[in-house]
């Protein structure tokens, strides 16, 4: 399963880069509630990404040992998204709700971008041969 861990390592770098960009935006612009919402959503999205990777590894190990397979943690991920929205609704002066929702989607965008970059690199390597 090193492939999943390699992908997660790349995606973690992208997520941390985005988070640092959002922190700079929060610190140096007048759109602090928007960037704070992006930070909150992205942090919980990053947690969800880590959670799904961990669950996938546990899923693989359970299949190899021929044990019963548990869920992939959908309810945990939904609960963290609901938590982010509840926080944004409770403190609208600090968190912009639409930014929180966009932040929750960043891990999916990062996964798609990583997929396209890796398939581009693989295609380029095949053409070189």
TrEMBL record:
Annotated membrane topology: Multi-pass membrane protein
Compartments where located: Cell membrane
Endpoints of the signal sequence: none
Main location: membrane
GO cellular component labels: plasma membrane
Keywords: Cell membrane, Membrane, Transmembrane, Transmembrane helix
Pfam families to which the protein is assigned, alphabetical: ATP-synt_I
Protein name per the record: ATP synthase subunit
Regions crossing the membrane: 12-28, 34-53, 74-91, 97-117
This protein's record includes keyword Membrane: yes
Superkingdom of the source species: Bacteria
InterPro entries in the cross-refs: ATP_synth_I, ATP_synth_I_Bacilli
């Amino acid at each position: 399963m090193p492939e999943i861990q390699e992908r997660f390592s790349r995606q973690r770098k992208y997520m941390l880069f985005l988070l640092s960009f959002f922190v700079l935006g929060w610190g140096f612009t007048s759109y602090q509630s928007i960037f704070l919402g992006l930070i909150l959503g992205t942090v919980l999205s990053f947690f969800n990404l880590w959670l799904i990777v961990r669950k996938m590894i546990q899923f693989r190990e359970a299949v190899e040992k021929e044990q019963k397979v548990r869920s992939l943690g959908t309810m945990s991920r939904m609960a963290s998204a609901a938590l982010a929205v509840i926080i944004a609704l409770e403190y609208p002066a600090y968190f912009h709700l639409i930014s929180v929702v966009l932040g929750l989607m960043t891990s999916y965008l990062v996964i798609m971008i990583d997929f396209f970059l890796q398939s581009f690199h693989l295609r380029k390597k095949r053409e070189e041969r």
